[in-house]
Design a protein that fits this description.
This protein has about 230 residues and is an alpha/beta fold. Helix content is about 30%, strand content about 25%. The protein has a six-stranded mixed β-sheet with strand order 2-1-3-6-12-13, with helices on both faces. α1 packs across α2 and α2 runs parallel beside α3. It is globular. Bound molecules: ribulose-5-phosphate (5RP). Ribulose-5-phosphate binds next to α2 and α4.
Length: about 230
């Protein structure tokens, strides 16, 4: 079985009837949506779901999962989401799939954020994966220049294969910061980034993962709970 699917299926086993659930975005989160959808169709589950992207909501709807508006819900019991990188302190880089803004809002409103990854995503230090930063399109070039000035690395605007700018579900641009090495001070970097006017959000998630599930190519799965200071 695909290691992402192994991790996803274990995460979905934590979902019970009556829960309000956040659904992440990306190929690993999609395995979780498939597994939850199958359970929903086979069991008598009462759920309320919110998706972090149109793509995930569309997939959930194919199983008849019941979605609610974010405005109608203040807390989520469990959110299941993927990540691009995770370190030993449960810090994450997310946003490879472009949904980092909604993913972070939903994570912040969630009691137990379960991050599901395959073993390739587990890193000694964050930063080999470009750090996505969501910015206002109106001022993207100005913001890009400020990011380069402040951090000394290029921030490439994400594009579609057509060359047009990639737009998030919230009509933002993404600038991918190419650190290509350990992120400097990951615990403080989000605050530093947000001093730049025009930055809406970044894909660095600190203190937002309560449980980590890692699927391995050999078929085994590992599960870790974040110490209270980290999650
Ligand atoms: C989307 C994300 C994804 O969780 C991340 O990109 C991992 O994707 P995948 O599961 O496809 O490897 O943050 O914004």
């Amino acid at each position: 079985m695909n290691p992402k699917q192994i991790a996803a299926e274990l995460a979905v086993s934590y979902i019970h009837t009556g829960m309000t659930i956040g659904l992440g975005t990306g190929s690993t989160a999609a395995f979780a949506i498939h597994a939850l959808g199958q359970r929903f169709q086979a069991e008598d589950l009462t759920l309320r779901c919110i998706a972090t992207s149109h793509e995930s909501e569309d997939l959930g709807r194919t199983y008849g999962l019941p979605f609610v508006d974010f405005a109608a819900v203040h807390r989520f019991d469990i959110t299941i989401d993927g990540a691009d990188e995770v370190d030993s302190q449960f810090r994450l880089i997310k946003g490879g799939g472009g949904a980092l803004v909604r993913e972070k809002i939903v994570a912040a409103a969630t009691d137990t954020e379960i991050i599901i990854v395959d073993e390739t995503k587990v890193k000694a230090a964050l930063g080999a994966f470009p750090l996505p930063v969501a910015v206002l399109p109106y001022a993207w070039e100005w913001t890009q220049a400020r990011l380069q000035d402040k951090f000394g690395v290029p921030a490439h605007r994400r594009s579609l294969p057509s060359g047009l700018p990639y737009l998030t579900d919230d009509s933002l641009y993404l600038l991918d910061m190419a650190f290509a090495g350990p992120l400097p001070n990951p615990d403080f970097m989000e605050a530093d980034l947000k001093t730049i006017v025009g930055v809406v959000e970044c894909g660095l998630f600190v203190g937002l993962c309560q449980r980590l599930i890692i699927g391995y190519a050999d078929g085994h799965v590992e599960e870790k709970a974040a110490p209270p200071t980290m999650g």
